[in-house]
């Protein structure tokens, strides 16, 4: 007997070997992206028609959404008074006639008058019109001559010229042909049993041709689990490989020993405040990573204002303490420069032994490198870096250019990871000329839900700063929906300014064009200067300004020489001016939750009470309304992240990083949260110390099948 058929086998067989697939159908399948039998088997139904829920026309309840099964008895079309095309079809079942009216769907006339159309499934809300039951723009699926309690409806494009039953028949053919040998199941029995999952073969049968909706759900669960398991296996494997195959640096974490004994302790003791419990836990977690010979690869998640900077500086100084260097990479120049300022201020006069100098010591030296750094300064920074007299280098992408050579890079902190790609992380990891790999700490102020973090950052360990420093008064958030309410916002700005505080005004986001966005910011400035905020010192900050001008404006604002900063979203991340207490966001409905949360985080950073005003009319989309209401309701970033995930689905968190992965066909990070966690646990278990997949060759082969290029390249490298 031959071995069961694997996914790899199926991926190697073309659909042209199916009966009924000639050159024309082949072309149609190709349009749908279906070339192999595996593509076909994983082309899952989009919807199911469940005959057990069928309603009869005569007894269908008014105002309810119902499913009607029937046949077309007549079709006609005409134009309405305002020029719209209106197609009217009468559909009949054993009990009566239902009138279906379609607006702006001229093609329906052709579709519904086809002689071979057969049975139709109509789904919609029953209304009464001229004493007749009718539906407006119902969902229509062609059942044709298909029987069975549940009928699958496949996603198709008109261009393919294929019908949903053709696809269904081919799938059935594949499953029939697989029946003898069976479809291999790579997941160990024990795992399946403990999670209550059905066998893969039965899952494929059940998702394509379920006997009941319950059958479909259990089948779907199994296939969802498989998708998530493959993803988690690749992430966990990547993490283990990194650990196994790279030579890390054993950092000097104690209070004694190293090149500069007690440096970190001295720094922490010199802070004007006590660390929060969360900061202490984070530092301890990071320290234990740093002390290991395996490179750290950790994500530090913390809401805006949770105090990530101190944690990061402690890690950077740990490198310095052991005679190495630290690097901090930020996504924008404004942020890099600001980090430079705040890290220098934090470190203050912490100094290190330097027997070669007159005093026998020198301050910890912090260098800055961005695209703004002028040639001469750049040469100096690079030389000092190579020789080791710069201890900590802060900058933008400029840090990872080839010319940048560290003497000995020990710890890398990457701020706002979502703006950087995996390649950039890899570039920093290989910055040392010997083969040692620095420890990497990724910081993000955009909280993401736990299960999403497991997926998007699944190859990182995660530390969460889940506590804000004491003494923060929560920010009060308002939604100004009328012009009267907007006027209150400007009053608030004026009164806060006269009390000695400062404000931000964020201008409408214009996705299509930065130029338009700048124009609108300039216009806003003029208007506010003339009317609402006349007499106040206003400054403008936008993405098209020269770097020097940006820097100057930021400095003026920081120094209190400007009362109000009118800006585009360049201030979104990380800008830290504790004296600013009001954030006004214009056309707030255009921003996503994460952005709004970031923007709001710019105020309430000092001891004084902070305010955030979201300006948007009450006539916004339902989603925008949900976003604004969530912002008013809570300041908890993790709660907002859950709302965001619910509203927008995985697009929010997957983003760039997951673009190449197309293996998540069925699984949804939102709906299938529970499965994400289970798949993660199984993956960790199966991979063990990193060699686990060798005992599960089928899973290994499947992984190779679905990995994207980036992952593949990665596996080759290691
Ligand atoms: P994040 O980067 O996480 O948004 P920061 O590191 O910029 O937060 O810190 C926000 C503010 O809180 C800074 O002004 C910082 O000085 C202050 N801060 C940080 N940790 C503490 C603490 N333990 N106690 C009091 N203030 C703190
Ligand atoms: Mg920060």
From TrEMBL:
InterPro entries: ATP-dep_DNA_helicase_RecG, DEAD/DEAH_box_helicase_dom, Helicase_ATP-bd, Helicase_C-like, NA-bd_OB-fold, P-loop_NTPase, RecG/Mfd, RecG_dom3_C. CDD domains: DEXHc_RecG, RecG_wedge_OBF. It catalyses: ATP + H2O = ADP + phosphate + H(+); Couples ATP hydrolysis with the unwinding of duplex DNA by translocating in the 3'-5' direction. GO terms for biological process: DNA recombination; DNA repair. It holds the Pfam family DEAD. Keywords: ATP-binding, DNA damage, DNA recombination, DNA repair, DNA-binding, Helicase, Hydrolase, Isomerase, Nucleotide-binding. Residues 289-465 form the Helicase ATP-binding domain. One of its GO terms (molecular function) is hydrolase activity. Residues 485-651 form the Helicase C-terminal domain. Its EC number is 5.6.2.4. Belongs to the helicase family. RecG subfamily. This is ATP-dependent DNA helicase RecG. It comes from freshwater metagenome.
